[in-house]
Specification:
Helix content is 71%, strand content 0%. The chain is an all-alpha fold and 69 residues long. The longest helix has 14 residues. The termini are far apart. The mean pLDDT is 93.
């Protein structure tokens, strides 16, 4: 779970958005879900985690944002 969380955080940081924004865009979940996961008050299903990881893979960080991060 921690590797997944780190991957989402790193992707969000590179885009200069909050991880909750990535969750909203990738899995159509509200932003409060990320806060629950961070508080270990829940965790994503494998299906949800797969959706988010697929979104990250299918939407690479633009080069100009990667350099600026």
């Amino acid at each position: 779970m921690e590797q997944f969380m780190q991957k989402v955080r790193a992707y969000a940081d590179a885009l200069r958005v909050h991880p909750s924004t990535v969750v909203q865009r990738a899995a159509k979940l509200n932003g409060a879900v990320w806060a629950k996961w961070e508080a270990e008050d829940g965790s994503p299903t494998l299906r949800t985690a797969d959706k988010i990881l697929k979104y990250i893979k299918d939407n690479p960080i633009p080069e100009n944002q990667e350099d600026a991060a």
